[in-house]
Amino acid sequence: MVDIIHRVGIKAPLARVYEAVATVKGVAGWWTEETSGESKLGGTVQVLFRSHGEEKGRMSFEVQKLSPNQEVHWRCTAGPAEWLGTDVTFSLSQQGDQTLILFGHKNWREPVEFMAHCSMKWATFLLSLRDLVETGTGKPAPHDLKIDDWN
Amino acid sequence: MVDIIHRVGIKAPLARVYEAVATVKGVAGWWTEETSGESKLGGTVQVLFRSHGEEKGRMSFEVQKLSPNQEVHWRCTAGPAEWLGTDVTFSLSQQGDQTLILFGHKNWREPVEFMAHCSMKWATFLLSLRDLVETGTGKPAPHDLKIDDWN
């Protein structure tokens, strides 16, 4: 099993960062505008990505953990084969004037090229999350930064 | 052993991307302005990072492989303890109008928080590399995007 891990700091209180990762409305502000479902323990959160109006990808996650101002943990239950069963985690902590996110997309079966693509995309989405919390405007899909021929 | 892997596409010919990763002048345009040494097989490339004029970090790499328009491989021979003995690799290929870079920073001993920081920083430096090649201007340190309390 192999993991993507990233670390980013956001100049905002823990509670505002937590809200942006723990709620459907929050996630829609930085990952993809087409985020739906119920972000409650045991609930399912769905995300849909389009390019030029055409569907490019769709994933579902079961919410495994919601610890206010501390941790959000999703498990992928539908989506690309490589994502099935993987875990997405956001661990929050305060450090000075920043809220730090230790992000993980864990338990990939192999370090495939698609994982390298996703690692890069996650980094840009975490910067989008920072922009959302610090300025009020993120870059969720379909306004996301394109990084390669896979988008 | 654990690895950071990223994938990025650059709208430019292979040769221009290769030059940006295989030469000291190229690396100084996207990673850190203070890049020195000799980028030849068996040579040593040194990079130095400052924040507000103060030295923040310094690493040396032995050039293990230089395959024109295909691959660059460095091994870290001096720097932070976590980096010693790790491998930095750039594998290039052409896909349509893009040169794809499959980037790796491999053989970390543990998936420590500093690795999560470096993963995020590498993503931003790869975007800086793309900017350098596509527009002529990258964001090498000290002009790099700050991502957390470690910079």
Keywords:
alpha+beta; homodimer; 7 strands; 151 residues
Task: Describe the overall structure.
Two copies of one chain form a homodimer. Helices cover about 25% and strands about 40% of the residues of chain A. Chain A is of the alpha+beta class. The two termini of chain A are about 25 Å apart. The mean pLDDT of chain A is about 95. The interface of A and B includes residues 2, 6, 145 and 150 of A.
Quickly describe the structure.
2 copies of one chain form a homodimer. Chain A contains 3 helices and 7 strands.
Largest sheet of chain A: 7 strands, antiparallel
* Beta strand count of chain A: 7
In DSSP terms (H or I, runs of 4 or more residues), the helix count of chain A works out at: 3
How much helix is in the residues of chain A?
10-25%
Which ranges of chain A are low-confidence, i.e. pLDDT below 50, for 5 or more consecutive residues?
none
- In one word, what is the shape of chain A? globular
Helix and strand content put the structural class of chain A at alpha+beta
| Estimated radius of gyration of chain A | 14 Å
Counting copies of identical and different chains, the oligomeric state is homodimer
Strands ordered across the widest β-sheet of chain A: 1-7-6-5-4-3-2
The separation of the N and C termini of chain A measures 25 Å
Overall mean pLDDT of chain A:
97
Protein chain pair with the most extensive contact, residues per chain: A-B, 30 and 31 residues
Strand content of chain A: 35-45%
Order of helices and strands of chain A: EHHEEEEEEH
List the helices and strands and how they pair.
The structure is a homodimer of 151-residue chains.
Chain A: E1 2-10, H1 14-22, H2 24-28, E2 34-37, E3 44-51, E4 54-67, E5 71-78, E6 87-95, E7 98-108, H3 113-135
Antiparallel strand pairs in A: 1-7, 2-3, 3-4, 4-5, 5-6, 6-7
Helix pairs in contact in A: 1-3
